Amino acid sequence: MQTFKTKAFARFATREGIGDSALCEAVLRARRGLVDADLGGGVIKQRIARKGRGRSGGFRTIVLFRRGELAFFVYGFAKSGRENLRRDELETFRLLADEYLTLDRTGLSAAQAVGVIVEVKCDDQAIQE
User: Fold this and answer.
1) Is-contact 8 16, C-beta < 8 A?
2) What is the pTM of this model?
3) pLDDT tens, 50-77?
């Protein structure tokens, strides 16, 4: 399974101290069927813990997700900063999922080459089911 983060999400993760290991753990939970919220159209919401705290008071991430194939972290926010997504934002994420989740190897490579997405390096053994 390949996991990526968008350039904007990578900035958010760096600013908030969210490492790739936390993203890999969130994807692993989703692969096991432990999705915090299925928003439809290939869009899920996964919680990520703040350092030293649990997931419930941590961050919410929006992930474009196709089980066993691809995951793209595209948006993140602190639970304390906002409660939920607006309807128009959700529709935009669903449209984005239609584009990103159909990328083939060539498309993924091209997106990486121009810096639109960055691959998240996960321990292969941790990701296997």
Assistant:
1) no
2) 0.90
3) 776 666 668 999 999 998 899 999 999 9
